[in-house]
Amino acid sequence: MAISKSKTSSRASEYSAKQIQVLEGLEPVRKRPAMYIGSTDIIGLHESLREIIDNAVDEALAEAARNVWITLNSDGSATVIDDGRGIPVDTMPAYKKSALEIVMTKLHAGGKFGGSAYKVSGGLHGVGASVVNALSEWMRVEVKRNNRIYFQEYARGDAKTPLKEIKIDGNTDFIPNHPTGTKVIFFPDKQIFSTLDFDFDMIKKAIRERAYLVPKLYFHLFDKRVGKEREVNYYFEGGITSLVEKLNENKGPLHEAIFIKKQDGNVEVEAALQYNNGYAENVESYVNVINTVNGGTHLTGFRMALTRAINDYGKKIGSFKDEEDYITGDDTKEGLSAVVFVKMPQDRIQFEGQTKGKLGNSEIQPIVQTIIKEGLATFFEENPGEGRKILEKVYLAAKARLAAKAAKEAILRKGALEGSSLPGKLADCQEKDPRVSELYLVEGDSAAGTAKGGRDRKFQAILPIGGKILNTERARLDKIIEHEELKNVIIALGMGIGETVKFEKLRYHRVIIMTDADVDGEHIETLLLTFFYRHLPQIITEGYLYIAQPPLYKLQRGKDIRYAYSDEEKENVSRIMRNGTEKRNESNRHSATISVQRYKGLGEMNKDQLWETTMNPANRVLKQITIEDAEEVDSVFTMLMGDEVPPRKHFIQSNATQANLDI
User: Fold this and answer.
1) Which of 169, 231, 436, 530 is most buried by its number of CB atoms within 10 A?
2) Averaged pLDDT of the chain
3) Bridging pattern class, strands 230-234 and 97-98
4) Which residue, 448, 437, 573, is CA-closest to 493?
């Protein structure tokens, strides 16, 4: 299913000032920057850099670039270089300015609107460069083209110099041995952004993702900031197939990754999938280089095709004899790792929402569905052994689904998962509005009793968690529902689980894990995090999951009582208490000593102390659980909680010296 592609030379000849179109000016960007980059915090800062990087990636998608260099400079600026065609510098007669200046200073000006310079692209619909320029204190762009180098400098979106030509020599030839390219250096504007500190790991994740999507494109990332010097390079020959194999690392893949690629008109569809021995699903979807985290019509088409192809194959070889044997879409999810990647003309893309998290083009669904269905049918025909492995996997998932349904119905008959019957151990709150309600999942009956006594019962609910709960990384839904502690959690939350989840019925918008500050407490915390990540991930993605931070130490000197949440804070608090006493009583400064109590468990605090230090919204510290790198999170949970022992053993051996054991 390989797709033939046109040559770079013909593309290069098509890209000139004729392809640059102007739609409107730049003025709105500085007034409402969040409309263009989402926010002005660290996320928006990195979105600015990604926009410049994606312009370089677009050159690779147009088959005109093979390298992208990103450098975090010591002065706080960032540099992005590509060996693509170079932004056109010839004059646009209607504006009597160079195409470069128009691209960098006019909103909606670029080669992505007419459809001839770029067939597919990412970024802010062609406005990325000008938006970043408008939000930069200064920017410099150099273009290597026609055996010459041109440059122009800007400040907060305005051109500060005319387009100038510089002599090519050893210092200015920024892409040696290549005749064309673009170099962008920019310094984010402190008047716009709340932070100017680029995060190396966030950038690394972004370029790694793009390296998977565009095979044979080299990424070179350098950090030249003082004290942070480092370098990373990415190159993946296999594209999204390499990404699927990475997602299935240490999960026991059942077969070689399946790769499907085909073009329908000006839409190109790629998909890679591979089943593993686990139970969790890990599917990613992209449009051009944009990660559609909320899926969309391309992902719907993929799922429909997968279900239909497996059912058709099972029926064809006689594995499915009647309709009761047929599998559902949910059955195909168990142990599936897949990537769906659609490339299409930028001006046709319709996203739902400003964050571009969901593709809305209705015409894409049947295109993807047809291509994937045909590709899978061909694969099953040519690889019957692999096809039977997949059939066995999804058929076991179907049996588990039926078992889970039976277990759930049995629980429902007892008045549990749905309805008004809440767990007997739950001390519920009076408040019925989930937006202001909190549920504390507390380790042990003793600590839960203290929490019940110290809480504000108007909006805080308490549910004890007894002992080590089930490791849900290795458990199917029927086993989870049968597990008493997890069943109580599911019932208390009120939103259901599995295919019956109704997120709008969640009864609390703060779900707070509160365990002892010891090894057992951290183990229970990890088990609960595994449960939420694998089976109720929306609670995390919506920002509703937290971890309570009870103090580690109580420090007392006379009537002065204070709390510390870390060893460092304990030393600081101790110093403050000692100095404060010395100032008040210089003549007797050595008479009073500071007593330090190390809390091993929540039960060591009385109800007033637990309220004041850990549960009172005015004083407490909560750690919100977020997912910044889904691929890395999935890998960590698999390594820590999965069946494969060697990766976990290697992790323990590698990190043993960093462990802080409280013996």
Assistant:
1) 530
2) 85
3) unpaired
4) 437
Catalytic one of 516, 525, 612, 634: 516
Other beta carbons within 10 angstroms of residue 406's beta carbon come to 12
Question: Which residue of the set 520, 569, 629, 631 is catalytic?
Answer: 520
- In CATH terms, 423-550+624-649 corresponds, of 3.40.50.670, 3.40.1080.10, 1.20.120.450, 3.30.230.70, to 3.40.50.670
At how many degrees (to 10) do helices 384-413 and 364-382 cross? 120
Please state which CATH number belongs to domain 240-406: 3.30.230.10
Mean pLDDT of 16-43: 78
Among candidate residues 443, 485, 525, 634, the one labeled active-site is: 443
- Contact 357/293 with Cβ under 8 angstroms? yes
Run of H or E including 390: helix 384-413
Backbone φ and ψ for 334, nearest 5 degrees, come out as -65, 120
Domains of the chain, by residue range, sit at 8-234, 240-406, 423-550+624-649
User: What residues does 359 pair with on adjacent strands?
Assistant: 296, 351
b/e burial code for range 128-152 (CB count within 10 A of at least 16 → b): bbbbbbbbbbbbbbbbbbeeebbbb
- Side-by-side strand order, sheet with 290-291: 258-264, 267-275, 336-343, 282-287, 290-291
And the tokens for 395? Answer: 């058929």
Q: How far apart are CA 55 and CA 127, in angstroms?
A: 10
The tokens for 2 are 């390989």
pTM: 0.68
State how far the alpha carbon of 128 is from the alpha carbons of 33, 105, 107, in Å: 12, 11, 9
Q: Which CATH number, 3.30.565.10, 3.40.50.2000, 3.40.50.720, 3.40.190.10, labels domain 8-234?
A: 3.30.565.10
Terminal C-alpha separation, the chain: 61
Catalytic residue among 325, 518, 560, 571: 518
Asked if 347 is an active-site residue, the reply is no
- Spell out where 73-133 has E strands: 78-82, 91-92, 97-98
Neighbours of 443 (CB within 10 A): 25
Is 456 a known active-site residue?
no
Specify the DSSP element, H or E, that contains 10: helix 8-14
pLDDT of 71-120, one tens digit each? 999 999 999 999 999 999 999 988 899 999 999 998 866 655 455 555 55
